[in-house]
Design a protein that fits this description.
Chain lengths: 298, 326
Amino acid sequence: MDLTIGPNFFFWQAEAVRDFYRGLASAPVARVVLGELVCSKRLPFWQVEIPGAVETLLAAGKEVAVTSLALITLKRERKLTADLAEMGLPVEVNDLSALAHLPEGRPFWVGPLVNVYNEGTLRWLIRRGATRVCLPPELGLESVAVLARLGREEGVPVEVWGHGRLPLAISGRCYHARLHDRAKDSCQFVCGEDPDGRDVETLEGQPFLAVNGVQTLSQSTASMAHQVDALREAGVAALRLSPQAKGFDRVCTGWDARLRGGLSAADLSAALRPDVPGGRLSDGFLKGPAGAAWSGAA
Amino acid sequence: MMELVCPAGTPAALRAAVEAGAHAVYCGFADETNARNFPGLNFTPEDMAEAVAFAHARGAKVLVAINTFPRAGAEPLWHRALANAEQAGADAVILADLGLLAHAADRHPNLRRHLSVQAAAANPDAINLYASAFGVRRVVLPRVLTVDEIAAINREIDVETEVFVFGGLCVMAEGRCSLSSYATGQSPNMNGVCSPASHVVYAEEGRDLAARLGGFTIHRTPKGAPAPYPTLCKGCFTSGEQTGHIFEDPVSLDATHLIPQLARAGVSALKIEGRQRSRAYVAQVVRAFRAAVEAQAAGRPLPASALARLTEGQAATAGAYAKTWR
């Protein structure tokens, strides 16, 4: 089992993006997916960093793929998606319409925002050219085991959400703009003020969700620290770590140590908790009874 | 005339909808294959066959929603639902899952396929992909699009489009939301339920009534005041200095006044949400909308008064159809 770094969900300054991917070049991870997933309006502000980051990561021996947007509606977003196919990298499909821009038979990766819930869907995507599939974080362990087994039979690595705030929903509406009494078209890029998303609590102060523009995330950081053995036994090929603003180098080295058996689940959780936004962990989608639940010590 | 597609959670509601003027009725089997898998609702295979016979005798169609995502290791349940729909004589099935669409196209080629809103096909490329790969003939559009965007989509596709005009409103792209399972373990995609009643607890605390979903407080209302059902995305939350309905107010969708624009945008069918609603409600809404689509087709002004009553006392929005909503 190895590690994949997913695309950054958040709107960071260009320099922060540059530093982040430079740091990843020396991190103990096998591959990196980068590009804008959440909002096409952000891309012009940091797009210039992409070629350099790709070059650095490839030179460091990482596999690199570029993600599609999660929700493609505008003409320029469709054009942008068509352009991804020309970058010479595998495209990670996170909106199914990205497939329409890939010539039949061109290999692609499937991201966690495509609904792969069963064997029929996984098989269809593999026939179509999928060479790597990250399952939706919502899936329980039983489903993961069935799909990982099929992936192995078909020679397609199946990956599972390993660490990071969970991508729970995507909308036409921008909640960051709404919180500032603005419409999406006049958002003034306020999502850039919250490098890990903006926390949403219940009226009683329970930590609950986080908004990131048009995306809604969990407030807790999902961590499969306690599920490594079960996932390995199920035949899962990789865990996905989702970027966070603080201490991501420690996330990568901690997870590498965990996979090598040098760090217990409890020690990894304790080591990572100070860096995760809000300090709370969850693994309930995999283990039940609900996504927000955590099977480790509080 | 635009086709009016109406909800039926029970055989009685189906009959009421047909008698009130529905051109088509959509419904599902009583199991996890459909996205309104609520206790006491939905159809057995025998109910379905009778419902189809009733509808066909009166010139109406029946569309069977098999629109959850089959559970890994349990696909035969969904495959049986397809076979049962065809056997019952359904006019179309409404599907969301790629694997199920592939199975339907392969094994039930003569059963007309519609793409569920749960598939969230939000642009012409996605729609054309579903049309070419699976022979989908109609797409129910996700509620993230403006009327202008719908018109633009219709210029680039050959299949029909259907849009929601009335009833409950998802503020997230449907079929791509796991808020409910994050709080409760039960989701629309996997279980056909959202914010399920089984996980709702009301607690009287001081002067308030707190409504919790999976232990998370969704709203608090003064005792005695009307308390909306705790649907997660319509809840009242706090973020920083702000407290309010961060995602959406407790409103429902009403795009009645947009019917002429939707017709000009090339929309083929108008859909009313509400398979969980009573047959009296269904009959009333269907009657009003039938009058509206007939007026539209005849070039007459919409009978505005017909619908005013339905949303009385309850806030309504045109949702994403108006750009300012976003």
